[in-house]
Amino acid sequence: MLVFCKKMFFSVFISLMILGGCNSDSNHNNSDGNITKNKTIEVYVDRATLPTIQQMTQIINENSNNKKLISWSRYPINDEELLESINGSFFKNNSELIKSLDSMILTNDIKKVIINGNTLWAADVVNIIKSIEAFGKKTEIELNFYDDGSAEYVRLYDFSKLPESEQEYKISLSKDNILSSINGTQPFENVVENIYGFSQLYPTTYHMLRADIFETNLPLRSLKGVLSNNIKQMKWDYFKTFNSQQKDKFYNFTGFNPDEIMEQYKASPNKNFIFVGTNSGTATAEQQIDILTEAKNPNSPIITKSIQGFDLFFKGHPSATYNKQIIDAHNMIEIYNKIPFEALIMTDALPDAVGGMGSSVFFSLPNTVENKFIFYKSDTDIENNALIQVMIELNIVNRNDVKLISDLQ
């Protein structure tokens, strides 16, 4: 019904445009930047942090003249000069973005839309595709998906535990599942076989935190066959080739400049260690203080990779109310808790080592940063915890370095 209504609306709209004269929308074209000239629109949507950071650097790196429609939940862009410099428009939600996209497709000869989204929230991308396809204009669609974080890998780990025949059966349904969602006959189900099935319909690239998941011993052969050559290892070394203007643009996007942290790192000749904190739902302030005390003991039988002699930095959880208590107990330097680790990684502002409470942060870290230890709640079943097991499988952490808070008692 949606497709029929949009096609009817499109036909009526074009008829009115012809009657009204070809120049009636010239002001709209000008305000939309170089849409008509390039005939390509780039769309960027994300509800998290990691995909947004990756999308920001992609925009800066490619420096295209294409019109860009952006909706980043955690990084609203209000700087009109910045938006103008990338030929972009920002929207507070995806619904407003889709309305604007619809208008542009109606009033311009758009040939191609490149959609950049969050793999875990593929349903957001489906909604955009659905709106484009409903016009029946055969607009070319290209997709880029970026990992939300560790959640995709927990799902992949769980999927790998299914019998191969069941994996193959689920994968065999994915193309029709996605098509039905785009056609509006059923809602999009956010399951592994669907979120990784878009390459069966559109040119698609999956930018993965750990593309080597398919090189582990996890039985994912069938899924890898569907993905084929559509996987790319997520890129973190943009700053090695960025000039000063490109770096400044990234700082403007994120509101983060690494200069202060880098100066703190260099304030002494010691190596640097960041402790990743958590909130009271996982551990008390006293428990985290005790973990740090144990980690500083070079003879600890529990934490064998000591942080004695390191300069200590603390990155607390944004919702924790006791961060200062932990910082003061060990005379640590605080890293503002709202600065995402992804920004530290992208700007090469990482310490020599990291440790602390269980977090998806450890998934993003390059292997040049040593993982000292990771602690979990006392009631965690390590052997049956999918996140821990997939981290061990990917050699992100050794089993001996995974600890429970109760190990200190």
TrEMBL record:
Gene3D superfamilies listed in its UniProt record: Sialyltransferase, C-terminal GT-B Rossman nucleotide-binding domain, Sialyltransferase, N-terminal GT-B Rossman nucleotide-binding domain
Signal peptide: 1-20
UniProt organism field: Photobacterium sp. JT-ISH-224
GO molecular function annotation: glycosyltransferase activity
Coiled-coil stretches: none
Keywords (A to Z) from UniProt: Glycosyltransferase, Signal, Transferase
Name of the protein described by the UniProt record: Alpha-/beta-galactoside alpha-2,3-sialyltransferase
InterPro entries, A to Z: PM0188, Sialyltransferase_N
